[in-house]
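Posting this for the archive.
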Amino acid sequence: MNTKQYRIKDIAKMAGVSAGTVDRVLHNRGEVSSSSREKVEAVLSQIDYKPNLYVSSIGVKRAISVVVVLPSFTMGGYWEQIEKGIKQAAYEFSNIKLKIKFLYYDQFDLFSCREIYNKALSIPCDAMLIGPTFTDETLQFVCRLEASGIPYVFVDSMIGNTNPLAFYGPDSHALGRIQARLLTESMDERRDVVMLRARRVGDESSTSSIVQRSGFLAYVREHHPDMRVIDCVYDTSSPEQSREAFDELFARHADIGGIVVFNSRAYLIADYLRRRKLRNVGLVGYGIIDRNLAGLRDGFITYLLSERPDKQGYLAIRAILEYALFGKRGERINHTPVDILIRENIDYYLRHMAL
């Protein structure tokens, strides 16, 4: 890693241009010949130059407006942590005139998503930050953004056949494989495993859960080809209907050894296992939210994965600012780390977790 601090005059000397030319390239202002720009950009790439948003934005007078489109959430939820990261970035870069407009849709209702996407398109902005759930709706949405020349960044899920400025989130296929390995290695392979999917209005499933499911099934087929995998759909909006779905699941399948959840609501099945006193069923979910943590602590969730949602939101805003201020593009696909949590390490993790 190159840790040397380069000044504008250092970069100018390396590129064989004036310091004023380097300044214009870094701040994306004024006329610069294509040959001079190419020389400066080659040096910036060579030294892995990263602009200092605290210092380099001084004197920038225009406001940068960002529309953020996220699924709605309850307090302590997964998407609240992504919003927390966004607000943390806005606070840290408060020297920049940043205007953020938040819009929320029901992630379990395609028609709600469509309505909010249409509303977002009516708001003038410099960039959009999107937490996508429905693939086709998002594809249509970003096609209109691209036609209007509005850059966008994805968090949580990457949508194929799109051209975002950046994506920050887990590798969903790898996440599914991790869940499969953790679950199958903690249970008797002669028993059945259940994949829980949330029922959604207007569409079968979310973008990320489809990819996770694919990764999960691929691992099981490779390593446990004789293990029976059962698909179960439940209603996240109705605890009563969820309980009925789980009652039917356990009545029909008496030898369930493990369950995987492809969203942050593992606590729903953990609550059910707790009430039924079913301690011999492994459960793997993700999302460091309060109710999931309670399930992990009392042993009804076996493993909990964290994809650093606050970091996703923080880095997405930083990428937008670097592009808006300096025209700088970083890596397009940025996979956040996946932390594996168990009852014995959760308190330490929470104490020492940093953005």
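The chain has a mean pLDDT of 87. The two ends are 21 Å apart (CA to CA).
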